[in-house]
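2 proteins. here.
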Amino acid sequence: MFSGIIQGIGSLLDSNNNEYKISTKLDLSDCKIGSSICCNGVCLTTTNIEKNEENYLFTVNLSEETKLRTNFGTLKKNSDKVNIEKSLKIGEEISGHFVYGHVDSVYKILKIKNLEHSWKFKFENKLSKYYDFIVEKASIAIDGISLTIAHVDKNSFVISIIPHTFNNTNLQFSKEGDFVNVEFDYLARFILKKND
């Protein structure tokens, strides 16, 4: 389980079928083989961790299901950046919301607007089965980042990004037309299910 507060950014070094190797400056000395690490909002299990000068290199395996539901299949080696968060430990502060790393789908960035004190990201919303989860002021995880939905239209929704979040996540490298991983708030799922 995670909180959606990104701790570092990594780069995809290599991918071979279902094995992905990621490099990061984030200190992974407290992680071990079998640890869960959230990568772009996807809970992945480490199969190897090593230190290489200033960077940590770690390897994860992706199932066919994970590649189908996420943007990992489109990541480019040595260029696309990956948000990284280590799993929560009991007693730690939870600043975002509970993020499980179980991505629901990918969504396209329609528009990025740089405002005076923030950035406005507009996302396409054409998947009707998820409409009920996209509500103003609801929590949402975009590439693993805990965010709040600011505005909802019929076929889109908007997230407002503050400078700290923008500068410390892969959103700073995002372009219009890019696809991001989306996980909806788990509490909303169970409330809606109960009311069915």
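next one coming up
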Amino acid sequence: AAGGGLVPWALIAGLETRDQIGGSAFATHAHTGDFTFKAAGLAVGFGDRFEVSYARQRFDAGVVIAGLELGQDIVAMKLRLAGDAVFAPDHPLPQIALGILAKKTLDFDFVPRAVGARKGEDLEFYLAATKLYFAAVGGRNLLLNATLRAGRGNQFGLLGFGGDRHAGYRLLPEASAALFLGESLLLGAEYRAKPDALGAFVEQRAWDAFVAWNPHKRVTLTAAWLDLGSIAGKRAQRGAYVSLWLGF
């Protein structure tokens, strides 16, 4: 879904206007102290109003069990409900969008079920609000986003959905802030809560701090420092990630 590396924003994928179809594609690689994560996907935006997207995620957890690789497929839709994030700077209403994600944990019957996950497939829902404020901080533009997710994905869904501690949906707050250092350079941070539903493993919040460079309107390269907290009993999973975004 269009947005940050951890948090979906209310923006619609692609560079289209209200009369066009656009889209984007991405690839991300992250490495923490014990794990490696890879993801790739694409999204299509219709008239700057509606978005559909697909992503596949793979997570190398060989440090827990030799040869173990977790993953999930995500198909998502997003509808812009109201407001405008960029082109109405004097209007207080942010751009607001409603999203739904259909997630499927790969190889659910092996580790995810064994550690107490209830389901291998689930739906998540979120409401996002995004606004760009011009000349807000020292004459520089500031982007703010707040997202509220209804979800129960263990480690984002890589370990299934729901657990022995609780099986129902949780309301999970997420937020992003980014400051434009120039026309093509963005400095920001994101926060994402997680449900902590499995008794076998403590699950903690995730956050990142990133720098995004946009040398061309169709290309963005992001480098970030990521903190995912404890994963599968391994504490302090921190490390770097890089992501390439292409838009049309």
